[in-house]
Design goal:
Oligomer: single chain
Shape: globular
Strand content: 15-25%
Number of strands: 9
Distance between the termini: 35 Å
Order of helices and strands: HHHHEHEHEHEHEEEHEEH
Strand order of the largest sheet: 1-9-8-2-5-3-4
Helix content: 40-55%
Mean pLDDT: 97
Low-confidence stretches: none
Largest sheet: 7 strands, mixed
Structural class: alpha/beta
Number of helices: 10
């Protein structure tokens, strides 16, 4: 009840006010309620030792919070500041009944941009997504995603449905930038990180291309989503997974504040 009441209020809060509130909460998180701050600081220092953690991570938190307010606004009325680039080939494949795979990452406003892209392009989309830990938040996010037309699948035990979705001409989105304890060790910012091999396995089994996507904030309520050309795949699970993470690393290096540093990406079980 509290989560939904807050969501109702935020969906009606002017975005410029929400931006100011997001920065206030980012400062509060940094100085008074440092949930996972140590993990974020350690991750950032290992990857970007030249960056001061405070400004980068506070900006990360502020933009993360604003992104979900923007998502709530978008569900009520589509945001006018969204733009999309490079989706022609993906849309053509979908119209021809050909499935495709997409590599996505927890950069920028990924929930907002994923939902908005599926709506703007009309491409039937399936997402492999781990739900938030809070049941109330998880229920709300699931409702928003499914209400926007996305099909959601859990990270484990979904390969059969992935193959079916591809055969139906759907796009299936994988996120590989979080730790997968049963994954394969893959270089990521110079350190071995446990990474799900599922995207490489799905590509090899289905024989479909993998397109990487990235989203960038261009203003308050404004984002640009770019689909890059497909990877040249080798069919080798380890090599292809390494190529996927290399793409993610390159995008993070372009704007370090935009990635979700809160996740303990390099921890071993």
């Amino acid at each position: 009840m509290i989560v939904r009441a807050l969501a109702w209020l935020l969906a009606r809060t002017p975005l410029r006010l929400a931006w100011a509130l997001s920065w206030c909460l980012a400062w509060l998180w940094w100085w008074a309620l440092p949930v996972r701050r140590a993990v974020a600081t350690s991750n950032l220092a290992a990857c970007f030792p030249e960056l001061a953690p405070g400004p980068t991570l506070r900006r990360m938190m502020a933009e993360l919070l604003l992104g979900y307010v923007e998502l709530l606004h978008h569900v009520r009325a589509p945001l006018p500041g969204l733009s999309f680039e490079g989706f022609e080939a993906l849309a053509a494949r979908a119209r021809a009944g050909q499935g495709s795979l997409v590599l996505a990452s927890h950069g920028g406003a990924w929930d907002l941009c994923g939902l908005a892209t599926a709506q703007a392009t009309g491409i039937p989309t399936t997402v492999i997504a781990k739900p938030p830990a809070s049941p109330a938040v998880a229920a709300l996010i699931r409702e928003l995603r499914e209400g926007g037309g996305l099909e959601l699948l859990p990270p484990r035990g979904s390969m059969g449905r992935v193959m079916e979705a591809l055969a139906e001409g759907r796009v299936v989105i994988f996120f590989l930038d979080q730790r997968h304890n049963q994954g394969v060790l893959t270089p990521f910012f110079g350190r071995e990180a446990l990474t799900a091999p599922s995207l490489a396995i799905a590509a090899a089994r289905a024989g479909v291309p993998v397109f990487p996507v990235w989203q960038r904030r261009t203003g308050i309520g404004a984002h640009h989503v770019r689909l890059y050309p497909p990877f040249t795949l080798s069919g080798d699970m380890h090599r292809d997974t390494a190529a996927f993470l290399c793409f993610v690393e390159e995008r993070i290096r372009e704007e370090a504040h935009a990635w979700l540093w809160l996740h303990d990406r390099w921890r071993r079980p």
